[in-house]
Design goal:
- The structure holds two protein chains of two kinds.
- Chain A is mostly helical.
- Chain A contains twelve helices and no strands.
- Chain A has a domain of 181 residues: MetI-like (MetI-like fold, Orthogonal Bundle), CATH 1.10.3720.
- In chain A, α2 packs across α3.
- Chain B is α/β, with parallel strands linked by helices.
- Chain B has an eight-stranded mixed β-sheet, with helices on both faces. Chain B has a four-stranded antiparallel β-sheet with strand order 2-1-4-5.
- In chain B, α3 packs across α4 and α5 runs parallel beside α6.
- The longest helix of chain B is centred in the middle third of the chain and has 18 residues.
- Classes of the chains: A mainly alpha, B alpha/beta.
- At the A-B interface, α8 and α9 of A face β6 and α5 of B.
Chain lengths: 274, 331
């Protein structure tokens, strides 16, 4: 795996994205230790203060420090986004591998299921699930796991169909290697690159989707400082205290750009030579 | 007894029909890639299979290793019918494209070690690595090759690795499907010499598929000529090249450029294109391109023995006064 790391390090985009994420991670770890503010404690005397040296991003209508809240909220958004991307990603990759490798009726069955799920508009499906099960973080996971695997299944299926016909896979068949070993050890590493790259842009979209669903009241519930919630709480004060809206928005954009750059770097690093 | 025997083996491919075709009751177009082929491979020999592209020789190779199942007839290995690749790996294959025949993400050592481990489970890690070094040495590669990735190797080196991998299970038959046609001429010679040495030293049986008459002449003991899914002629290599008995064989040989040919002597290579492989041909499949075609050629031709060890599918071959002997000159 060292050549992969070496090529990643040489890609400026990848390094930039990684640095942005590490900066956020450092803030998450360090801020609670040195910040004088509690992300949940109310302080009406300091409500709606504009950004200054004491409150870098200003305060909200309850006088809570917005910088501290954004940093505390990063844990919610990143946990949700990564789980809702990487969990379904593993599921989708396995489904795509099986569909592409076995072909025939296995492929037909799996792809019809994919088509059915694909046919539902995502937000309608989430609204239905949350409507039945009630809002909350756990039900968000269920909704994303039901839908998010599809892209990965399709990408990996296509790659697998191509690789399955390559002569080295046929040699494995003649050498009597079993399907599990052939798929996981020989096809997967060559089929997974586009899925990994896609997962980075999927993370960008999922961070936004999580924020959007919380904005609609379907996801994380207040008083958690989740970024979508921060924005929804700011709506009434947008004209007088725009910093309440702008900074959580910038945080979402920060993470989005970081993952996009990281994906770019991974794409360069994972392309096999020759 | 022959080691590998194809008995009346056929393999067809169907083109999928559209809904309109099905509604109109049209039957699907059938491509008979291999059509009722009988062929026996003797222990220790190198049998060449030649023919133009599209004649079914690659399909024949895939049938011989069990990568594809015949839809008619049987493939017998050591007298027993085969179903799928041999579980003990006694029939192995080397492929045409050296660039897709090795996993690009594994070092040569890792991929050979995996195969060694599959067939010799009792070996320790150290013994497996020794076995890998030996496998590389067998095909004339230095031990350092084990640490390299396929992209760091040339086409010829990759093809050697493919051969080393195929030899790991200690097979009795090596099926080589155009193993040199993607290589430079000088590298071709090295690979051919390697196969020749393996055959001489280990007595391994080789089924060598090629469209290159010169290479086949150099390497093989016996040659089968295929055309449109059928075997047209089988003969020992000298007999075939000295006295081709089928007009197609003669035409194929005349198609090979020969710098020693005297100026002015006429070449009579096969002209024209192969007929539509989907078309149903009842009589001799070559008749549409044959210079000697007559009315009788519209009847099915049988593969008959005309000389010891030589089989020809042409009724004219029995006629000793044929004008195409030696593939050299005509009157």
């Amino acid at each position: 795996m060292t050549p992969l790391i070496r090529r990643f390090v040489r890609s400026p985009a990848g390094i930039g994205g990684l640095a942005m994420l590490l900066a956020l991670a450092a803030a998450v770890v360090v801020t609670p230790l040195i910040s004088p503010y509690d992300p949940y404690a109310l302080d009406f005397g300091n409500a709606l203060m504009p950004p200054d040296a004491a409150h870098w991003f200003g305060t909200d209508n309850f006088g809570r420090d917005i910088f501290t809240r954004i940093v505390a909220g990063a844990v919610y958004d990143l946990r949700l986004a990564t789980t809702c991307v990487f969990g379904p990603m593993i599921l989708g990759i396995l489904i795509g591998l099986c569909a592409g490798y076995y072909g025939g009726w296995v492929d037909d069955a799996l792809m019809r299921i994919t088509d059915i799920v694909w046919a539902f508009p995502f937000y309608v499906l989430v609204l239905t699930i949350v409507g039945v099960l009630g809002p909350g973080e756990g039900n968000l996971y269920i909704a994303f796991f039901m839908v998010n695997w599809i892209g990965y299944a399709r990408i990996v299926r296509g790659e697998t169909q191509i690789i399955r016909r390559l002569e080295y896979v046929q040699a494995l068949t003649i050498l009597r290697f079993g399907p599990a070993r052939t798929m996981l050890r020989h096809i997967l590493p060559n089929a997974v690159t586009p899925a990994v790259v896609y997962s980075m842009s999927d993370l960008v979209l999922t961070v936004q989707a999580v924020a959007a669903l919380s904005f609609f009241g379907l996801g994380v519930q207040p008083p958690a400082p989740e970024w979508g919630l921060l924005i929804v709480e700011s709506v009434d004060y947008m004209r007088d205290a725009p910093w309440m809206t702008i900074f959580p928005g910038l945080a979402i954009a920060w993470v989005g750009v970081a993952f996009a750059l990281l994906g770019e770097g991974l794409a360069t690093a994972m392309k096999p030579k020759g | 007894m022959s080691l590998l025997e194809l008995k009346d083996v056929s393999r067809s491919f169907w083109t999928p029909r559209s809904l309109v075709d099905i509604a109109l009751g049209r039957s699907p177009a059938v491509l008979r890639a291999v059509h009722r082929v009988d062929l026996a491979v003797a222990e220790g020999e190198t049998l060449g299979i030649v023919g133009e592209s599209g004649c079914g020789k690659s399909t024949l190779a895939r049938l011989a290793v069990g990568l594809q199942a015949p839809d008619g007839g049987t493939v017998l290995f050591e007298g027993r019918p085969m179903s799928g690749p041999d579980p003990a790996g006694r029939i192995q294959m080397v492929f045409q494209d050296p660039y897709s025949s090795l996993n690009p993400r594994m070092t040569i050592g890792a991929l050979l070690e995996e195969v060694v481990g599959r067939y010799h489970r009792e070996l320790s890690r150290r013994e497996r690595q020794a076995e890998v070094r030996e496998a590389l040495a067998r095909v004339g590669l230095p031990a350092e090759t084990a640490a390299k990735y396929p992209h760091a190797l040339s086409g010829g080196q990759r093809q050697r690795v493919s051969i080393a991998r195929a030899l790991c299970p200690r097979p009795r038959i090596l099926v080589a499907d155009e193993p040199v046609s993607a290589l430079d001429a000088s590298v071709q010679a090295q690979i051919i010499n390697l196969l020749q040495r393996l055959s001489r030293e280990t007595g391994i049986t080789i089924l060598f598929i090629s469209h290159d008459m010169q290479v086949v002449r150099h390497l093989c003991d016996r040659v089968a000529v295929m055309y449109l899914g059928k075997v047209m002629e089988v003969a020992p290599v000298e007999a075939l090249f000295d006295h081709p008995r089928h007009p197609y064989t003669a035409g194929l040989m005349d198609a090979v450029p020969d710098v020693t040919r005297r100026r002015g002597t006429a070449r009579q290579p096969v002209s024209g294109e192969m007929p539509d492989p989907y078309a149903e041909i009842r009589g001799c499949r070559f008749a549409s391109r044959c210079r000697f075609a007559e009315a009788r050629c519209a009847e099915p031709q049988r593969l008959t023995e005309t000389a010891p060890g030589g089989l020809v599918r042409c009724w004219k071959a029995a006629d000793a006064t044929l004008p195409f002997s030696g593939g050299k000159t005509l009157t």
